[in-house]
C-alpha cells in the first residue's frame, strides 16, 4: 500500500512539473535585450547560504544597455540598496508572473523622480517603494530601465528573475528562454566524495569522508566500503560562446541500475534558500570554499528539488561484491555526462566514533547551558543530529570564546545564543556585540545586552565571543583635489568592528543625497546631479556604525 501511495505521489509531482513547464512556455515573454543572450550566471547556482535566484544576462561588458519589459504589466516595486541588487525594478505582469531586474544603472524618468522625492523626504539613500497598477504601466518590449553594475555586483550585467504573483516562488528563467540560449556542452565533475554515516559506515577502513578526484573523465581512486554510506559530487556546467562556469541543473545517482537520488532545481521559494546548507558538504565548504553536493539526505531536508528513495539516497554496502555507481549530470538542454565507478564491498570493523560533550537532536527543542553560555535551538532547526564538543577557547582578559561544536553546523532559520558579560565589559553595555570567530577573523552577528547577558540570533553553530566597539567609523577623502574637476565628492568609509548603520550628508546645512556602495565602501556625492551651485560651501558628513559610534566630518568645499 505504501508503495502505491509513493508511486501515486511521484506521478502527481511529475504531472505538476510538466503542467508548470508547459504553462511557462506559453506566456510569451520577449527577450530583455535586443542583442544575443549570454549568461554569466544561471538559476540555482550555489551561493553562500542561498541559491542564485535568477539568471545573470551579460551586457557586452558595459553599463547603459536598454532593458525591455518582457511582457505587459506595471512596475509594482522599486528598490535602492547599498548592496544587494542595488537599483532594482519589480514588474507585475498580466499573465500572473512577476519579473525582477537588478543591478540597474538608471530608472526611467518618472520612476527616478519618485525615488528621488522619497530619498529627500526621508533623508535616506535606501528606499523600498510599493507602487499601484496606475503609477507606471509598461508594455511588452517597452524600454524599462538601463542595465548597470549597482549594488553587490562586480561587473556589468542584468540580474533577471521570474517569480509568481506573490513574489515568493522563483522559477528558472531558462523555461522561457531555452531556445534563445545555445548550449551543447554537458556538465563535468572534477571530484566525488564518499561519506560513511557516523557509527554505521566505513570507507577504506576509516569513519571519515574521502575525496576521489576525476582525471580525464575517470574516477581515479579505488574504493572499499562497508555499511551505510553516501555520495557527493563536485561539478559545474558550461555553455557555448562563454568561458563562465554554472551550476548543474540535474544530478542523478544510480546504484546497480536503480535510481537512488535525483535533484532538479527548476524552482524554489525564499524559505528554502538556507536548505542549501543541508544539501552541500557544509563543513568542507566552510573550510575550503569547495562545493560538494550530496546525493543523499543524511538527516532531513525538505527542499522540493530533491527526490530520494526509502533510504534517503544512503547506500547499504552489506555484501562483499562490486557495487556499480553511476552519477548522471545534466543541464537544462539535456546535455548529460555519466560517470561510472566501482565501490567494492568488504567487511571492515567499525572505527570508534569521535567523542563529544553534548548532542542536539533535530526532532526536539534543544536547550544547553555551559558555564557562561546558554544556547537555544528550536525544534526543526537542525538538519541532522549534532554531536558537539563545547568548550572555551583561549584565556582572554575580557571575554571568553565559546567553541560550540568543533565544526560548523548550519541551522535552517536560526537559534539564540546568550553569553555572560563580565564586569569589565558591562561598563560598555551599549557598545557590545557578539562576534562569530572564523579563520579570517570573524564578523558581528549583533546582539542585545540585558541584565548581565548578551543575546544574539545565530544561524550557525561555531565559535562566538563578546566584543566591544567604541571606535567610530573612518571617513577618508578620496582624491580630494579632483572633486571640483570631476564634479564628484568621494569618501571611503570603513568600520573595523561591526558595519555602517547610517550616513547623511549636508551642504551648507541642507541635506544632500550621498550614494553608498557596500562592495567598495565608497560614499559618493554627484555635485551636478544634486544641483550643487558653483562656489564655496560647507560640507558635512555624518556616519554611524551598528554600535552607535558616530563620525562627523566637516570640510570646506570649493566647486
Question: What are its keywords?
Answer:
twelve-stranded antiparallel β-sheet; eleven-stranded mixed β-sheet; 7 helices; Chondroitinase Ac, Chain A, domain 3; Glucose Permease (Domain IIA); mainly beta; globular; 4 domains; 559 residues; single chain
Explain the overall architecture:
There is one protein chain. The chain is mostly beta strands and about 550 residues long. The protein has four domains: about 25-180, Glucose Permease (Domain IIA); about 190-345, no CATH class; about 360-470, Chondroitinase Ac, Chain A, domain 3; about 475-559, Sandwich (Immunoglobulin-like), CATH 2.60.40.1220. Helices cover about 10% and strands about 45% of the residues. The protein has seven helices and 45 strands. The strands form eight sheets. Strands 1, 4, 5, 6, 7, 8, 9, 10, 11, 12, 13 and 20 form a twelve-stranded antiparallel β-sheet that branches. Strands 14, 15, 16, 17, 18, 19, 21, 22, 23, 24 and 25 form an eleven-stranded mixed β-sheet that branches. A hairpin with a 5-residue loop joins strand 12 and strand 13 (about 170). The longest helix has 24 residues, at about 1-25. Mean pLDDT is about 90; it is low at about 1-25.
Amino acid at each position: 500500500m505504501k508503495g502505491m501511495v509513493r508511486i501515486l505521489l511521484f506521478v502527481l509531482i511529475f504531472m505538476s512539473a510538466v503542467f508548470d513547464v508547459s504553462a511557462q512556455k506559453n506566456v510569451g515573454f520577449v527577450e530583455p535585450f535586443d542583442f544575443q543572450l549570454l549568461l554569466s550566471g544561471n538559476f540555482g547556482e550555489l551561493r553562500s547560504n542561498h541559491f542564485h535566484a535568477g539568471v545573470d544576462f551579460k551586457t557586452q561588458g558595459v553599463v547603459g544597455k536598454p532593458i525591455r519589459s518582457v511582457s505587459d504589466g506595471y512596475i509594482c516595486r522599486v528598490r535602492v540598496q547599498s548592496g544587494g541588487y542595488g537599483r532594482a525594478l519589480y514588474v507585475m505582469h498580466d499573465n500572473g508572473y512577476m519579473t525582477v531586474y537588478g543591478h540597474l544603472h538608471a530608472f526611467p524618468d518618472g520612476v527616478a523622480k519618485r525615488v528621488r522625492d522619497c530619498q529627500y523626504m526621508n533623508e535616506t539613500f535606501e528606499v523600498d517603494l510599493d507602487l499601484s497598477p496606475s503609477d507606471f504601466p509598461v508594455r511588452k518590449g517597452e524600454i524599462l530601465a538601463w542595465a548597470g553594475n549597482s549594488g553587490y555586483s562586480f561587473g556589468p550585467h542584468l540580474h533577471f528573475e521570474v517569480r509568481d504573483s506573490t513574489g515568493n516562488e522563483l522559477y528558472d528563467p531558462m523555461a522561457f528562454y531555452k531556445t534563445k540560449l545555445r548550449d551543447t556542452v554537458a556538465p563535468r565533475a572534477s571530484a566525488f566524495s564518499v561519506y560513511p554515516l557516523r557509527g554505521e559506515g566505513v570507507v577504506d577502513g576509516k569513519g571519515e569522508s574521502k575525496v576521489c578526484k576525476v582525471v580525464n573523465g575517470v574516477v581515479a581512486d579505488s574504493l572499499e566500503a562497508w555499511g551505510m554510506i553516501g555520495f557527493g559530487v563536485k561539478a559545474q556546467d558550461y555553455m557555448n560562446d562563454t568561458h563562465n562556469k554554472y551550476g548543474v541543473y540535474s544530478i542523478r545517482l544510480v546504484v546497480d541500475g536503480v535510481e537512488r537520488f535525483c535533484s532538479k532545481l527548476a524552482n524554489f521559494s525564499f524559505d528554502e534558500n538556507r536548505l542549501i546548507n543541508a544539501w552541500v558538504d557544509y563543513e568542507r565548504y566552510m573550510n575550503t570554499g569547495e562545493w560538494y553536493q550530496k546525493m543523499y539526505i543524511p538527516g532531513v531536508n525538505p527542499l522540493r528539488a530533491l527526490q530520494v528513495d526509502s533510504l534517503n539516497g544512503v547506500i547499504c554496502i552489506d555484501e562483499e561484491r562490486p557495487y556499480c555507481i553511476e552519477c548522471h549530470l545534466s543541464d537544462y538542454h539535456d546535455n548529460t555526462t555519466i560517470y561510472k565507478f566501482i565501490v567494492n564491498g568488504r567487511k571492515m570493523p567499525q572505527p570508534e566514533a569521535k567523542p563529544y560533550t553534548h548532542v542536539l537532536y533535530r526532532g526536539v527543542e534543544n536547550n544547553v547551558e555551559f558555564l557562561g553560555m546558554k544556547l537555544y535551538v528550536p525544534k526543526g532547526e537542525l538538519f541532522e543530529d549534532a554531536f558537539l564538543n563545547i568548550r572555551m577557547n583561549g584565556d582572554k582578559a575580557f571575554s571568553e570564546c565559546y567553541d560550540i561544536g568543533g565544526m560548523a553546523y548550519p541551522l535552517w532559520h536560526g537559534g539564540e545564543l546568550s553569553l555572560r558579560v563580565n564586569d569589565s565589559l558591562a561598563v560598555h553595555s551599549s557598545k557590545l556585540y557578539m562576534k562569530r570567530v572564523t579563520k579570517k577573523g570573524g564578523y558581528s552577528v549583533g546582539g542585545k545586552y540585558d541584565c548581565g547577558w548578551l543575546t544574539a540570533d545565530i544561524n550557525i553553530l561555531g565559535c562566538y565571543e563578546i566584543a566591544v566597539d567604541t571606535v567610530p567609523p573612518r571617513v577618508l577623502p578620496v582624491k580630494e583635489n579632483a572633486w571640483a574637476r570631476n564634479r564628484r565628492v568621494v569618501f571611503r568609509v570603513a568600520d573595523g568592528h561591526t558595519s555602517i548603520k547610517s550616513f547623511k550628508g549636508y551642504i551648507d546645512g541642507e541635506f544632500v543625497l550621498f550614494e553608498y556602495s557596500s562592495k567598495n565602501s565608497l560614499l559618493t556625492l554627484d555635485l551636478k546631479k544634486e544641483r550643487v551651485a558653483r562656489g564655496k560651501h560647507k560640507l558635512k558628513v555624518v556616519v554611524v556604525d551598528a554600535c552607535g559610534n558616530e563620525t562627523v566630518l566637516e570640510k570646506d568645499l570649493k566647486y
